[in-house]
Each structure stands twice: as C-alpha cells, then as structure tokens.
Amino acid sequence: MKHLLSIKDLSQTQLLDLLVLAKDIKTHPENYRKALDGKSVVMLFEKPSLRTRVSFDIGINKLGGHCLYLDQQNGALGKREPIADFAGNISCWADAIVARTFLHSTIECLAEHGSVPVINALSDLYHPCQGLADFLTLSEQFDDLSQVKLAYVGDGNNVTHSLMYGAAILGISLTVMCPLGQFPDGQVVFEAQALAKQHGGELILTSNIDDIVNHDAIYTDTWISMGDNVDLAEIEAKFKPYQVNQAMMEKAGAQYFMHCLPAYRGVEASGEVVDGEGSLIFQQAENRMHAQNAVLVTLLA
C-alpha cells in the first residue's frame, strides 16, 4: 500500500490484513503506543466532520503521532494555490496527508503530486475509512464474512460505493436497494460486479422492497448527502417506502442495523431501529478509529 484512495485498490489479502490489524490494535492498544513515534499527519478538511476528525485526531495521538488540522480558513484547496503545490509543500514537513474533500479528483491530485501517503477521509465518490470500519464491525459479529448477506437501503452514494467494493473483495453477498434514479454510479457497479465474480461474492441491485428477505444486516444512510441543495418534500416522497423500520427488519430476518451517521430518527430509519438492541451504529463509530489506525500503521510504521 502506498495510499488509501479507495477500497477497490486493495487486494483481498490486504483488506483482510487491515481488519486483522485493526482488531489487534483495538484489543492491545498498548502494543502500538509508539507506532507513529516522531510521525506527523496533516488533516485537510473541506467539509465539516465529527467522527472523521475526532477519530483520526485521537487515533493518531494513541499511536504516538502528531496531528495537524487544516480547514478552509485559507480558502478551498486549489484556490489559493495549486493543489499540486499544496501537496508538495506538505510533503516537505509531514509524513502523511488525510484529506476530506468535495471532489475525488482533489484526493488523486494530492496523491499524484505529494511524496507521502494520502488517505481518503471522504470524497464525492468514496468513503473507504467508513467502509473499513463497517467490515471490521461485521467481522466482530460473524466469523466468516463470506457467508454474510448485507443489504444497503437508500441513496446510492459514496458510502454505498465503498461498501460495494469491500463486499465484492471479501466475497460478501450485498443487495443494494434504491429508489429509481438513485442507484450508485454505473462504472462503480460494473467494477464491483467484476470483483464479486472474482472473489465469489454477489452484488444485486433492485428497487423492489420485497427483495429485502433473508439478510443478516441492513445498512442505510441519510437521504440527503452533506451539502446537497434539494427539495426535502420531493426526497421524502421518493424515499419514504425505503425507511428502515421494525417491519423491514423483521421481513428481512435481519439481526443487525447499521448506519454511518449522522442518523435522523423517523426519517431514513425509525428511532426504534436506530436505538434498538441490534443497532451497531456506535460500534461502527468506534471502529472508525481502529480501522484508520490500522491504515496509518500499515502505511507509516
């Protein structure tokens, strides 16, 4: 690994190794307290964040490293000076770059022109750190991930893309259920289907709610992505049948509920499900730090 730009860039062995390492870091943090000793990581954030910023900042500290946070006070990346120059300058001082950006092309430019590892902390196309945390969470519930049947219900977005790639590489059966017109990017679907075929997984895309049967876990996300300017009434009308509620959980036979947060109770999922016994939302949130630390240790230690 030179960077973490997308889960699709990982081999099955690399992905499984990251999950094993994340579990070890979570279980034995004392063994990694100096893993990033003398290392500095710059975090570039174009978008606001709770989980990503806090989990990286505290996680880097737990590994013995130093974290520097940069927001948009100096202007958006590429506006004040070229992204290439930005990457070159930071590479002179820091040992890695963590970037949360609007455009994935910004992440790619940082990786191309910098000389240090770049970690995608979210872009419009992918959210690999979230995906790693999600599969880490599932691996804590199931001994064999290849036997898991996961359903994603809602808007096809960057989180969906990372789930599709990860599930395909791990041999998981994934059903992506979206309203018409809200499916994931076609190229991502094509690539994920090829990976699934290679690794014995399965990717099903559907708009039919009745296809939710026989799944171990249901995953959803907000209906409106951060920063989107859309008509709320129109979105609610389109997505209301896809709300994850107790009836859907029972129809699916799903034991677990997943959400990358923030969650809006009574909107994309009922409060009963979000706060229910099978909800893994805070385990996913905690695992963001452990999964990201595994990436940092792999790239830097």
UniProtKB/TrEMBL annotation:
Gene3D superfamilies: Aspartate/ornithine carbamoyltransferase. Keywords: Cytoplasm, Transferase. GO terms for molecular function: ornithine carbamoyltransferase activity. It is found in: Cytoplasm. Its EC number is 2.1.3.3. The keyword Signal does not apply. InterPro entries: Asp/Orn_carbamoyltranf_P-bd, Asp/Orn_carbamoylTrfase, Asp/Orn_carbamoylTrfase_sf, Asp_carbamoyltransf_Asp/Orn-bd, Orn/put_carbamltrans, OTCase_ArgI. It is an enzyme of class 2 (transferase). Its main location: cytoplasm. Residues 2-140 form the Aspartate/ornithine carbamoyltransferase carbamoyl-P binding domain. Carbamoyl phosphate binds at residues 100, 127-130, 260-261, 288. It comes from the Bacteria. Pathway: Amino-acid biosynthesis; L-arginine biosynthesis; L-arginine from L-ornithine and carbamoyl phosphate: step 1/3. It catalyses: carbamoyl phosphate + L-ornithine = L-citrulline + phosphate + H(+). L-ornithine binds at residues 158, 221, 225-226. Residues 147-298 form the Aspartate/ornithine carbamoyltransferase Asp/Orn-binding domain. Belongs to the aspartate/ornithine carbamoyltransferase superfamily. OTCase family. NCBIfam families: orni_carb_tr, PRK00779.1, PRK14805.1. HAMAP family: OTCase. This is Ornithine carbamoyltransferase.
